Amino acid sequence: MRQHADDAGTGAGLGRDMYRVNMIVNGEEVDSDVEGRTLLVHFLRNHLKLTGTHVGCDTSQCGACTVHLDGIAVKSCSVLAVACRGRSVTTIEGLASDGALHPMQAAFRDNHALQCGFCTPGMIMSSVDMVRRLGHELDEHTIREQLEGNICRCTGYHNIVKAIQCGARNSAAATQQSAAARAAPAAAGR
Question: Second label for 163, Cα 20 to 30 Å away, from 98, 104, 105, 107?
């Protein structure tokens, strides 16, 4: 378990209302003292140094701060860190496994679905949640509708939509391969 002191590591701010926060972040248990007003996005970026989650608007409008809280996409600029006690948070840094990009991350790369990249982590986290909720066969209209609340100021969304469709298909294939791999030892033992 990693323990984290306050932002400066000097004890500054301990006179304020401080709260102990413990949660699972990207599969790792973390424990820290934070001010009650600390937003999840600032906890992730400033305390844990997970800077893939971006602060774009601070008003829950742009989606750059999207993470998964207990598997569901949330805008971390609208969630207090203390509200996440005992819960599980996944950031863009936690999607890849065993050195391999998540299928949605790979699809964004392969389909050139980014320009400056600022919105990309939030877009990917929202897209993974979209596939979880709606399945692997997503049409353009559904994707564009579901992306409402995720703003990209660089692209026309065309390649983002293509990437999400590709990532959804690739996620389905990866799920099927994983299920087949788990089933193979059981079938061999018969």
Answer: 98
Find how far residue 25's CA is from the centre of its chain.
Answer: 10
Q: Which of 55, 50, 47, 95 lies closest to 71 in space, CA to CA?
A: 95
The DSSP-derived string for 18-84 is: EEEEEEEETTEEEEEEEETT-BHHHIIIIIS--TTS--S-SSSSS-TTEEEETTEEEEGGGSBGGGG
Domain boundaries of the chain, sorted by first residue: 2-94, 103-181
Q: Which distant-in-sequence residues (6+ apart) come within 8 Å of 65 by Cβ?
A: 41, 53, 54, 55, 56, 75, 76, 77, 122
Contacts of 67 (CB under 8 A, 6+ apart): 40, 41, 44, 53, 73, 74, 76, 89, 90, 91, 92, 125
Task: State if pTM tops 0.90.
Answer: no
Domain 2-94's class? Answer: alpha beta
Class of residue 142 by CB neighbours under 10 A (exposed 0-12, middle 13-18, buried 19+): middle
Say if CB 104 and CB 167 are below 8 A apart: yes
What Cα–Cα distance (Å) separates residue 13 from each residue in 36, 38, 41? Answer: 11, 12, 19
Structure tokens at 153: 């100021």
Q: For residue range 35-50, list pLDDT tens digits in order.
A: 999 999 999 999 999 9
